[in-house]
Fold these 4 entries.
Entry 1:
Amino acid sequence: PENPGVIADCIGDNVGDIAGMGSDLFGSFGEATCAALVISSYSQEMNQHWATMMFPVMVSAIGLVVSIFTALLVVLRVPFVGVVDGKEHIEPVLKHQLVISTFLMTGLSYVAAEVALPEQFGVSALAPGLTLSVCRWEAWLCVAAGLWCGLAIGLVTEYFTSHSHQPVQKLADACITGSATNIIGGLAVGYYSAIVPIFAMAAAVYVSFNLCLMYGIALAALGILSTMAVGLTIDAYGPIADNAGGIAEMAELPHAVRECTDALDAAGNTTAAIGKGFAISSAAFVALALYSAFVTHAGMANVNILDSRTFPGLMVGAMLPAWFSAMTMRSVNKAAMEMVLEIKRQFDAHEKDHARCVEIATRGSLKEMIAPGALVMLSPIITGVLFGKECLAGLLPGAIVTGSQMAISMSNTGGAWDNAKKYIEAGMMKLDASGEPVTTKRRLDSKKHVGDDEAYSYDRHASYDHVRKGHPIHKAAVVGDTVGDPLKDTSGPALNILIKLMAIISVVFVPVVNGSFGGVLFDMWWKHFVHCSYDGTNPFKHHGNSTCLF
């Protein structure tokens, strides 16, 4: 009842899923707002009117009001929206908040655009001194693109991580043959879950940039984050339910209480994954807006990936998320091993020292984050100083592209593994008279052959046993959940920080990499060897006494 590991887990849920995710979304929120305000300040039509200049802030403020109203629908138990009559209604009610807030925000943001923005106004282009004339409805479409991109990511995440749908149910079936097939199936679920979100983000970027250039990208990021209060609400729901389950188990409350908290926790795992999806997508948009600021301040009218410096930077940047993830997962592994040994020592010695386990986790998290933090902060500085702004212009998009996809995959993989375990613990996987599991495919096949009514009767009235804790199938699911925790709670969310922080540091250090200190290794030592580029017309470029061939 007084397992020190459970107590440390409760504290860790508060720190990671509430404080950590909240600070991540808050950072994206502030950076997206600042990016939109800075870009709008270059427009003469926009900075002449306070309401026009404050349109990004108005979008955020309206989103807050919409989020409060949506939450009240659940509190007041409005029919068809906020009524929870059973376990099966938990996830739909949480999903309704996301859908309703998106619809309301789409309409109200149009009203804000009509009130605050002029009929025609100019937004600055990447090249200095150039502007693009846009309409107020085009700015609204950028916000709407971000809103619906966020909703699409949320719905796809819900499908791949909820035990109400086939991906998690089939993942539970994979536990029948052991841990290895569970791990393989979980990785496949995570990879599949990244396809639709990436297409949604690509479509939102295309629409927003073509309508309002980088101002549109910043508005799309604000569109995703405008319902941040709803996202944080459903994200915090997960660790609250998880902690309630831990307290119920330690207090040895009746089994019915634990069953109730498990149902809440299963829904919370899905909503937590949805919150992480919002954080990842918004981080990608914010990083892209900051990248445009870097390119503009560095005086680069365009970025040519065929440049002899840019393409190597692109390759290295694509590798950085994998390097960073390896460091964070190894850190989790080291701290977990130390904590397991400490818990075992306390049980063997009949000693109660809960603070010791909390200290191990706290000390490990602070100490082990030094190296990954240094990697994130020093990579753009070293790249810019040694290899120049062209190489840094390749490093950043490489990290953004691979980091966003890896983060989505990791987050959803961990959520699917966790809910596959919850699916089994809830007794939803059954054994027939011969002890064989009744898989998802077997249930679906029964519906096809004997009809829906007989199939449901087959499931309801046959004398099946249930897979419970301690069964080999459940043990395989626990292994998957254990592997998934560092993916969904550490490495995945941390990649948001990587892509944003690298972009921010690059913008701050533009005067350094754009001055005499930028590219010292190439310009001073190797300029007769590698200082060549392809200009799109002549494949032969002469530099001094050397000839370069692309």
Note: Confidence is low (pLDDT under 50) at residues 450-463, 530-550.
Entry 2:
Amino acid sequence: PLLPEQPNEGPAEDQQQAAEVIQVNVGLDETAWEHGEVQEVKCQNSFFAALFLLQAITLLVFGGLGVKTLITYDPESDHNNNNTANLEVNAAPTTTTEDEIYSYVPVFLLFFLATTTTIVLVSSAVLSVLLRQTGATKTMMEFGLILSNVTMVVLAICCLAVGAMSMAVFCIIGALIGICYATAVWHRIPVAAANLAVAMTAVNAHRRGLVGLGYLVTLLTAGWTCIWFLAFGEISFMDSDFMWSCNNDQDQDCQLTNGGTWILMGLLLSLYWTTQVLKNLFHTTVAGVVGTWWFSPSTNDEDEEMNQPLASQDARENGTTSVVYDAWIRSSIYSLGSICLGSLIVALLQLLQTLTRSARQRRGRNGVAAGGLLMCMLQCIVDQLERLAEYINKWAFVYVGLYGYDFWTAGSKVYNLFRARGWTVIINDHLVARFLSLVQLLVCMLSGGISVFWGWLFVIRRMDHDEDQNADDSTLWYGFFWLGFALGILLSDVLFRTVSSAVDTIVVCFAEAPNQLSELGRGGGGRRNAAPRLKPAVANEMVLAWRKVYPNEIGN
């Protein structure tokens, strides 16, 4: 039981809750499957960590050179530029336009700052409200499934009303598929909702640290993308004859040379790899934090404590205030090689995706029909391999964050765990991901509205009062909306990825140590600075939902 039996004292509601709590007892024999073991604290897969750092330092060097070139570049003194004369001739007529453009730079910067800040505040507020709805997850997920199908039906009706028959047929087909999907998975909603409720409780225990780390990773990703473009520009113009082959003196029709193609492939691989590493670093860190919350011992049994994952040992020694920091250090130092290895596999497949799509588009422009089916099949295979690799990484990195395994061992261990539990079908459930995607879509729509408001306040109003400007306001409205939508995706993704990673970790922890729910219901076990524990009602709902939907896997 989650709580010891107590005399029936107090209000009737408390007595009823106590009776419900006593029913929650998973009571499974956990010796029937293999458990993870804490690994020696050392750098795993260090070769791939060194390789990643080497390419990162190389790109940083070229990025720094790109910054220097951008600052010191003067087209009037560039004698090697064949277009210098043309630039000088056209300099005078464009002075007025340049002054007008520069006059709007502070306005656009103010607009961008206000939009970004507001989206961050709104996204954080939505996440904060969502994390407090642990008792309404089932209702929210049911409403999400219904809303998506109703939306498709409404869109179909609107398309029919305006005569867009093709779009109407597309929406009707989408609604039918959505209805079939909702009917097929409706009985599994209680399990997904229970997993989500437990994960939200775990995230809420360390919300400030995880949200702050999430935005740090987002800034690192955005900053690295800027550095990548600077490095690409520096490498492209350092030896333009080696990179580009141009057909005329105006350099208006240029193509990559063979050497330039290989350099571009290397740069794309670097970009994909680094992006995947930052994403998986955050995922592994969340796994470590949630593992701390799940496995933190409430007893004084030293033997039992030594069998807990690395995260819970750090929590016992340092308290919960440093849990996020400790998990980040383990992921970014000791497990960096494992994360780099798994991320490199996905990055290579993403590069192959880019190459196949580029080849198909080039063949289409040239009117080459031969081999089109083969290229289509190749792209489909590569896409599926990339999704499979990301799927494997998602579960493997949870074990990396919990126990500090190397990448291959972690993937093997978690696969053997799910196979021993008979959960190979259960882990394919995407209900939580669909629900979070729907919430994120709503946030992105709201972000678009926020961007339109600030764009009107700072930019459009000024243009309307500028007699020299005749810009089409409708274009600006659409532009501001889609810019806000894109910023909403970028800034809210990390927040909802926090919850998604927490759900994945909860599934792994529940598969390996389901009886730990009893410990979670007891609270902090008297430890100082203990993180908030799981509400007994939520634990009860999780066990009952699993037993109802998967009676063979969880027991009656």
Note: The longest strand covers residues 244-246.
Entry 3:
Amino acid sequence: LGLGGRMSWAKADVPTPSREADTDKQAPTDSNLATPSISDNDLDEVDLPESMGMVPGSSLRETPLARNRSWMSNADMSSPTASSSLTPPTTPLALDSKDFDGPLSATSTSGSDPNNNSSSRFSTTDIPPQPQFGDAEVVLAESVAKKLEERDDSSGNTRKYAHEDSSHPNWHKHKKHVFILSTAGKPIYSRYGDEQQLSTFVASLNAIISFVEDNGDTLRYFCAGNHKFVFLHKGPLCLVSVSHTDEPDAHLQYQLHYMHAQIISILTQNSVTKIFKQKANFDLRNLLGGTDRFLDSLMTSMDHDASMMLESIHCLRLPAATRTQLGNILLSARASGDVLFSMLMAGHQLVNLVRPRRFVLSPNDVHLIMNFVFSSASFRTASESWTPICLPDFNENGFLHMYVCFMSEEVVLVMISTKPEDFYKLSECKEKIHKEMTAPMGNTAAPTPLPATSVLDGITDALLNQHYSVAEIGIPCLLHFLYKAQSTNQFTTPRLDAPYNTPSERKRLFRLYQSIQVRVKPVSAKPHKVYYHVSQSETVVGWVTAGFELYATFSPLESKPVAIKACNQLLRWIKQEENNLFILTGSQW
């Protein structure tokens, strides 16, 4: 699945279509097929043409986003730090440690000069008193949470449904609730309402969980009326989704995985485990204060963002020459600082990513970074920000350090380092990157001259025209599609036009994609390599191979041969545009 096999998909109940056909034959395994075709006569026969190049969006070279989980050893990554500042620190902080599991001692560099190497012990006024479990990473997590809470409070941000509880008439009308609690029954998070006021309801959930566990089993999900209860057990935490949205339980459980990863990105898995090992009834909200908005934002995104459903990254559609020039700028600037990852994002889309050859970022970690950056107003108001962050798929037990700077209103530069004292070096890198991105483009001899005057202007123009229409593809019967390149974990999709121009219709189509995906995922009980769905509203073809994952939507009156022919036309168009739609030549060192 491209995320290290972190979850298993199971076949779920979906609305029964009026007609459907599938094939049990194996999908093509040659990733070098450009436009594999389905027989126009019957979906039971799958014919593949001779190799015509590579699958659209794939690359034989290493790509910025890899499908396997990559871990960094203790020797490659610095230890967590005790710095809690989200703004440029005047005194960089560091921790002396041999590995993540050993005791950590905090040291501080004297003065604001980054070249000053003299150090002294912290006084009691430098950091908050340590909790009884005494781990420095816990101190760091608590300090970060408090800083986030102070910033959000100062900006006047409050949760929309914080006043609701289980007795409120509107609380029961929400279609999907999410609860996080500890194994001791302590409420930690509720999507709607104040978790403290929902302690009675949370206690009931905990009683149900305990009853099943006492019988030597683990509760996964059950249905009560038109509500589905889905459970995810992750160490000392239990996550529960209560919904009546007709979503497959596999998707609901996958969303809970994301919510757990968001908590780990703030605290680290090692901290959470040690906290509850020493005190089972610890109130984790003391360490998560002010971070509810990240969980809220992530949950909202998963209700409509196809990139999370496909476990892939949505890249900004950008001329290949502009993307290549940006990659060279990011790569050259990293020489002046100890940068592990450097990426540019625009409007929740990845523009380019620079990384070391031996380390990769999973789509999960990239989504967490995007959610962390774009869901907090404090990053937009600050000229430069510096914050610790844990990337669970990269290393769930340690912190990295992230530099954030908005180059414009929607274009943000993110650089990640292993060293807590690298803020000044990364700030210098940003200055070099900004200078080169705003300089006039020098590629005037290109066959197709770029209209933008600089790289930043080119990205801004692309962001304004990011959503292309299905009419641009030239397939009259095509209404919408989702396409994912398996080798690069990147996907593309057009904007939603009529008849999907209302929120209800867009959500209905998204739910339909979820239902069909469960049927065609390769690891399900009886996967369908090709799935054909027809209803009164639309016809959808789901097609999964070793090279791509495609969901194409047509009008309900289109015949099967026409839909099959249109899918192959669509693959050819994506192949022609792949250099602009995907990042195929990621910069590495």
Note: The CA atoms of residues 40 and 246 lie 33 Å apart.
Entry 4:
Amino acid sequence: KNRGEEDSGEYFEGLESEKERKTAREKLLNEIQITFYSIQKNVFEMGGMIRQFILDDKGPVCIAVFGLKSHEDDAKRSILSSTQIHRALKLKKIAHSIGITTGRAYCGSVGTHNRREFGVVGDMVNLSARLMCASKKFHEPILVDFETWSGTRDEILFRELEPIMVKGKSMPINIYRPLKELKKGQIMKLNIPVIGRKHEILQIHNILEDFVGIERETPKLSHNSPPSLSKDQATLVEESNLGRILLIEGEKGIGKTNLIHQLKEIAKSLGKELEDIGEREPIVIFDGISSSLEQKTPFYTFRTVLHKILMKFYPSILKIIEKNLPELNEPTPSDVLKDEKNKGKDMVQDREFVKEVEERLNQLSGNVEGKKNRNSMMDEYQLDESFLLDELIQVFVDLLRRISSSKRIVIILEDVHWMDKTSWALTEQIARQVSSLVVMSTRPFIEVEQLKKMRRGGGFETLFLNRMSKDDLLLLLSKSFGISDFEDGIVSIVWRRSEGNPYFASELFKSMMESKLIEIESNYKFCRISKREAIEEHDLPSTLEAAITSRIDNLPLHLLEALKAASVVGSNFTAKTLSAILPNARERLDELVSY
């Protein structure tokens, strides 16, 4: 159990024989082992590592580190991991306390050539220990510092506590208690207006108008015909796309989500035009989002999409899936609950189809239970189980095909660079077999086999978002922060350091305001520099630094070596200089520039 040394004797009190004491010790050791293993497993699954597990004057202490293999959301990962560990320990009635800090630390070998170990050393390491101790005093299971809060406040709900004094600090430090993760739709991000995207919005408008106005030659399924494609039909569509695909590509913070919001508004506007001429709800929009933490979770990206579709059109089929596939059972989306009309009933004309789909799902469930006596179909779902996977995907595709015979379906999938393999397989088949528009957003350089096939299948368009010009950035900052004019040099500094990325620029500008490097005169809404000597050396906010570090850590090894060698030379260097210390330096630099 997680006890300090001072009460370790209480555990054995009242045990009479040595055998009983030995049994108790073994039981205690086993409990410690099981507890530590569960902590270790959780941390590893979240992308962290265990630095150390020790017993000191504070009791058993586990030190976990996130960021050795960089992810841009390491701070968020550490909070989610700690929250899950807290819940598990609470269920076991094990007293515990957790402190989380974010910052720079030395990570590497500590010791001599005779004895050494991997160490993590720095002020933020000491501070996390202080917060761990403080959490006991405040009776809060988890405490985080300002940097951790700052980097995750858009995605985690916190309660701010009174600042505290800790050993080693001359001033009180701000502390926060994480409460819960904010789901999509709850996240309150900085409102960044759409600026400098007229060409992209026009292109989206044309794509949507073309999609809405196309008369598809796909025959509607009769009530007595099987919903699935025959083998010959499947062969015909294997090489071509029946649906349309739009890929919105750009780096983090470049404005993909804002552009998708514009796409939704345009689609709704076109839908109203069609309703005015007599069509009933002609366009239906369903959206899902991928997660860096759920890349191995089957159908994760499509879970909300499928839940909304089935709840709206086929609630009886939803009940079958919830029974046989509990892992796919998502909480009812809030926007579905708000709209009573979305609590649909099975279409009267689809009774035969619904009955057939239910039989197929029940048969699939029976196949799995008979094969391995599993309680859920998803226990069996691995990519090598091609029959079961293909059958389930085909069921989902047939449902969408049925709906597309009377509706124009728009499916929006965000952050597909994190999409799980099963969702990729389903997306490919939707593109092949369903008359729909699939919109995906991704970061650059994604290489997935299904995406390559969809590109070759026709009806595929890519919209690449470039960085903002300096003039567009000036307009962005003016609208976002209500500023009429800027002192010379401010916009140039923000544009250069953010490299024209609107999200990075807004975060950097906000950080400069919080650090009092710039001031806004309220009367005239004029922004001026207050600390000119410090503005150029201002540290990047943690959100930007994490994103940049993640990009560097995920470079191919040969490019990472080139970047390391260049950093030793200095911030300014020539290809000739780098070539003197690194083979093929010019080729590597050309490839780095393309990144």
Note: The chain is about 45% helix and 15% strand.
